[in-house]
Design goal:
Blueprint (H helix, E strand, L loop, with lengths): L1 H9 L8 H7 L12 H21 L11 H30 L1 H16 L11 H5 L5 H12 L6 E8 L6 H15 L9 H4 L2 E2 L2 E2 L1 E2 L9 H5 L3 H8 L19 E2 L2 E2 L5 E3 L2 E8 L3 H17 L6 E5 L1 H9 L5 H17 L10 H24 L11 H21 L3 H6 L1 H30 L5 H37 L24 H14 L2 H6 L4 H7 L4 E3 L5 E3 L2 H4 L1
Antiparallel strand pairs: 1-8, 1-9, 2-3, 4-8, 5-8, 6-7, 10-11
Helix pairs in contact: 1-2, 2-4, 3-4, 4-5, 4-18, 4-19, 5-15, 5-19, 14-15, 15-16, 15-19, 16-18, 16-19, 18-19
Length: about 575
């Protein structure tokens, strides 16, 4: 048993053991020593297999003589079965892709194209209530009832917030009147006049502000004094002369100041409200003009802020136009292209990096098409989905490439089929764990009662599944083809052949990131001030930190000699 364990740990290829191999090496307290008698070794071996494979079946009362607990042994057994099964599965996948790499790429593209046909049923929801009001909310039923049975009462409210040191002055009131006049004068070719689009109350277009206290009369407003304004807002039992209802000043003013008698002497903000009867494209066009009028402001007011129904939707629609996100996407692509291979004309992997990022686009397109076919609506926040997926995709790419690089040059050249199988055996479990974790996270988010959030999580979860499949097939196939190109000494960019005498510079085969961490960051950590603080942590840090790993010429890793560093 010890000999078998030693044989597994050495691994004839010099690679680190796989997860299943590590499980085989763990004894969980069962001591296996070569000097032990053969009978004792056989007995301990039987106990070990009893505990690690099926403790409950072998000793349901946990009375067997094995030193490990039944619960721990069963967990180890389940872990072994899952990991070993995944490794076997990915070995088969890698062997298939290594042999039929062109077919794997073609199948991925056909799957993408097939599901992208779902774009014929693509629908983007823009209605606020359908996006952000939780399912089952009574407001949806009540709004639908009012819209059907009392269409004349159905309106959409637009707001203008005016702010100044004191809005209760004659100049501020006149400035509000100028803004109100411009709003009601909106007239473009595709938008009807205010009288034809407004919601009517008592046969009067409904708009409420302090101006209605003076009946929106331009002559009266122009002759107002500051004292007239103060006297009006402090009038007891105010009644609107326009709508013949009570008018509550404290409902439309903010940050009010009062004197010792409790009378209002000033306020810093006031809200003007406009109600529309029409929605749809006509209403949105009017709202766009309304927003422009508000943003234009007025010289006698410190700030004017418009808020329309479409403002919230415009804010999310603008996510797709943010140049910072686009710049970040470009930087990630550039980083992938630079870091995925060695910086020389043969060993660089320009097209591997670009096609790896393209697989993210393929997954996004396939997910949108599939969800559209299933009737899941597309919302305004879905435009950030590619930026989210590229992080997952790039992580999987580097895991697969690193597993490929960990193979010896002989393994990569001798048999591409077995090389791909071995690389996927090591990388497959890692990318499966990360993909399942992300899938579960967004799967839980898909249970949200908010339609926009639920739809977004469904789209991302489906895209993660497609991305996982494309990384295992499309990207792995591209990596195998690139290995053929490198062995043929073809240029990484233009694919022409270099002479047999060409040899890449030694410096081009060194990892820039490894050099930064090894030569710079590690030395900072091991500087004299660091040594004097927590010396007891050095061995643990050197053992656990990947910065203490030095890449050897054979492509394998070894721990730096701690004594030499000290």
């Amino acid at each position: 048993m010890a000999e078998n364990t030693a044989e597994k740990s050495s691994n004839t290829n010099g690679d680190l053991p796989t997860v299943s191999e590590k499980v085989d090496q763990q004894n969980d307290g069962v001591v296996l020593v070569d000097s032990m008698p053969e009978d004792d070794k056989a007995e301990n071996s039987e106990k070990r297999h009893c505990c690690s494979r099926c403790c409950l079946r072998c000793c349901p009362s946990c009375t067997c003589g094995c030193s490990c607990s039944c619960f721990q042994a069963c967990l180890q057994s389940v872990s072994y079965i899952i990991v070993h099964g995944l490794e076997e599965l990915f070995t088969r996948v890698g062997r298939f892709v290594g042999r039929f790499h062109w077919l794997a790429i073609l199948m991925s593209m056909l799957v993408t194209g097939g599901f992208c046909a779902g774009f014929i049923k693509f629908y983007q929801e823009t209605e606020y209530n359908n996006l952000w009001v939780p399912d089952g909310s009574t407001i949806l039923d009540k709004a639908a009832f009012v819209a059907i049975n009392f269409p004349s009462l159905s309106g959409q409210y637009q707001y203008i917030l005016v702010m100044d040191e004191n809005v209760l002055t004659a100049d501020s009131i006149r400035a509000m009147y100028e803004i109100d006049k411009k709003v009601k004068a909106i007239n473009v070719a595709t938008v009807p006049s205010w009288e034809n689009i407004c919601y009517e109350l008592n046969e009067v277009c409904f708009s409420t502000s302090l101006l209605e206290l003076w009946s929106f009369n331009e002559m009266i407003v122009r002759n107002l004094t500051d004292q007239d304004v103060i006297d009006m807002v402090n009038t007891a039992n105010l009644t609107s002369p326009v709508y013949l209802g009570n008018y509550y000043v404290d409902k439309v003013l903010a940050e009010m100041t009062r004197n010792g008698n409790g009378d209002i002497t000033g306020a810093k903000a006031h809200t003007m409200v406009y109600a529309l009867r029409l929605d749809g494209e006509v209403g949105k066009t009017w709202e766009a003009e309304f927003i422009d009028v508000g943003l234009a402001g007025h010289n006698d007011l410190d700030e004017v802020l418009p808020l329309a129904i479409r403002s919230f939707q415009d804010a999310f629609a603008g996510l797709s136009e943010l140049w910072l996100l686009t710049a970040g996407y470009v930087l990630i692509i550039a980083y992938v292209v630079v870091m995925v291979g060695n910086i020389n004309v043969v060993e660089h992997r320009i097209y591997v990096g670009l096609l790896g990022v393209a697989s993210v686009g393929m997954a996004t397109g396939a997910a949108i098409g599939f969800c559209s076919l299933c009737g899941v609506v597309y919302g305004p926040i879905h435009s950030v989905m590619p930026f989210l997926l590229i992080g997952v995709g790039v992580d999987d790419m580097f895991v697969i490439v690193q597993a490929w690089e960990n193979l010896t040059p002989t393994e990569r050249k001798k048999n591409k089929q077995e090389a791909a199988a071995k690389a996927m055996k090591h990388a497959g479990v890692s990318i499966t764990v990360t993909s399942i974790t992300d899938l579960l996270a967004f799967g839980i988010g898909a249970t949200s009662p908010i339609p926009a959030l639920r739809s977004f999580c469904i789209y991302v979860a489906v895209a993660i599944v497609f991305l996982f499949l494309f990384q295992c097939t499309f990207f792995m196939g591209v990596l195998v083809i690139d290995q053929y190109r490198r062995e043929a000494r073809r240029d990484a960019c233009c694919c022409f052949k270099h002479s047999k005498d060409y040899k890449p510079l030694a410096c081009s085969r060194k990892s820039l990131v490894h050099w930064i961490f090894d030569k710079c960051y590690t030395r900072i950590l091991l500087a004299i001030p660091m040594k004097g603080t927590r010396p007891a942590l050095w061995p643990h840090a050197l053992t656990m930190c990947p910065l203490a790993m030095e890449s050897t010429s054979s492509g394998k890793h070894e721990i730096l000699d701690q004594g030499a560093i000290a």
